[in-house]
Amino acid sequence: xxxxxxxxxxxxxxxxxxxxxxxxxxxxxxxxxxxxxxxxxxxxxxxxxxxxxxxxxxxxxxxxxxxxxxxxxxxxxxxxxxxxxxxxxxxxxxxxxxxxxxxxxxxxxxxxxxxxxxxxxxxxxxxxxxxxxxxxxxxxxxxxxxxxxxxxxxxxxxxxxxxxxxxxxxxxxxxxxxxxxxxxxxxxxxx
Length: 191
Known about the structure:
By secondary structure, the protein is of the alpha+beta class.
């Protein structure tokens, strides 16, 4: 032990980098809604994507590989974990925007946490990996219902909703999204 020395700003920055809390300098695109050293959140407008379903559910497997209109979504990545919520409108959300449950198997209705099963997720969360996270989610197999909450208010439940949308015949009916009972702010800061 030696004589105490005054802390310098350089030392604190060096310590923070060593602890992995440094955020790289990035130009944030308009779709990013929040960014910290640990978490990145962004939104995607409604679009059309292919979806894949596991063969163990014969009714779901009939939909395998078809294209579907998707609702607008909010994505959150922390480390290698992914959370997902839907948006009630097709526009960039604000902090007070109420979120909806993402109507997908493998996504927990309570929290939005995603079971990644066959998903090949990237090793990091950065602006450069946003499309990689999205592609990994939609190129994985939807295999099972996660959690206790209903994923949709559609009268024919999950399979009824996606069956009605198979082949991208019509836009995603936002009226069938179930409330998540949290705002964008609450979703982003929740761990």
